Q: What sequence folds into this?
């Protein structure tokens, strides 16, 4: 049985009305039914992208049905996904067990804030000055910088406490004007790609039978990351969509570092900097690829949020050089506990 072939989703990134409406709830879950229209409930503006997540996931899954069929069949609900809408701080990214895959709406809103803030700040305050040879080690500040920082701070604050109101005032995917359209719609695509990567990562745990292990190992996370990325790279995507998935994979892994101020993966997860290095290396990027700069900016913003000074070099030739500079600071922090 093809569990993903009958998805009740629209054929565009932004779901139409017949994809289902969200309703404000206190604490309950909503399910995506593969045989009927999507019925969604939620609290945040990101609720309008439920159909988009499935479009981006379906673009990958439908090309690998034989590979994932056994994994889907092993779930009691045969591949149905649960989206949990609650009013709590972000604690769980996504999880999988024998009952299925669960995704949390508060994490989705947090995740959406990252591509919006990173893309707008990177393009306006970092990338353009670098290309113009005018970058002097400081981010240039304009209206997009401030919108990006406000959005970033709100998103990361969701890992500390639940808050709803600012999400409708800040740039968001529910309602926006032509001034914000470019970065919001770009963020929508990268967010949906990132959620697809997260779900594929969870399917990777099924593929490698990690749920049967007595203890999760750090290698399990590397295996699941590699599984998700290999599915994306093998899909017949055009250049534009492939880039979106690559950004999404990076954003998905970057989101983990903002949960606390340790930059540590703990006993069961590898250090995030190691996971991101491995991810980018597997993509075989050239040294001037923007993804290196995005990753570096993500760690730099982590340092700003947690009051640790990573800074930027005043001169650099490539984005990979910048990533290696920031990566060295992260490695020193993990070894010595300071910068």
A:
């Amino acid at each position: 049985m093809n569990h993903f072939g009958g998805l009740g989703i629209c054929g565009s990134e932004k779901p139409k009305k017949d994809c289902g409406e969200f309703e404000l709830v206190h604490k309950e879950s909503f399910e995506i039914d593969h045989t009927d229209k999507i019925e969604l409930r939620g609290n945040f503006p990101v609720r309008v992208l439920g159909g988009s997540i499935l479009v981006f996931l379906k673009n990958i899954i439908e090309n690998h049905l034989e590979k994932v069929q056994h994994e889907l069949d092993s779930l009691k609900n045969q591949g149905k996904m649960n989206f949990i809408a609650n009013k709590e701080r972000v604690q769980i990214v996504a999880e999988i067990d024998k009952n299925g895959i669960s995704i949390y709406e508060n994490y989705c809103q947090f995740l959406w804030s990252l591509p919006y803030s990173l893309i707008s700040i990177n393009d306006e305050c970092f990338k353009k000055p670098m290309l113009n040879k005018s970058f002097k080690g400081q981010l240039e500040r304009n209206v997009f910088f401030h919108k990006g920082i406000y959005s970033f701070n709100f998103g990361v604050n969701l890992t500390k406490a639940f808050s709803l109101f600012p999400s409708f005032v800040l740039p968001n995917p529910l309602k926006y004007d032509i001034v914000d359209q470019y970065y919001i719609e770009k963020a929508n695509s990268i967010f949906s790609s990132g959620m697809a990567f997260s779900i594929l990562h969870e399917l990777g745990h099924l593929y490698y039978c990690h749920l049967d292990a007595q203890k999760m190992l750090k290698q399990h996370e590397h295996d699941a990351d590699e599984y998700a990325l290999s599915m994306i790279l093998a899909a017949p995507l055009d250049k534009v969509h492939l880039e979106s998935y690559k950004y999404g994979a990076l954003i998905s892994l970057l989101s983990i570092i903002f949960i606390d101020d340790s930059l540590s993966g703990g006993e069961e997860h590898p250090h995030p900097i190691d996971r991101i290095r491995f991810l980018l290396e597997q993509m075989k990027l050239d040294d001037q690829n923007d993804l290196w700069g995005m990753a570096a900016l993500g760690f730099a913003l982590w340092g700003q949020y947690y009051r640790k000074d990573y800074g930027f070099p005043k001169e650099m030739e490539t984005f990979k050089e910048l990533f290696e500079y920031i990566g060295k600071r992260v490695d020193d922090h993990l070894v010595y506990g300071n910068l």
About this structure: The CA atoms of residues 90 and 107 lie 6 Å apart. The chain has eleven helices and four strands. The beta strands are 28-32, 81-85, 94-97, 100-104.
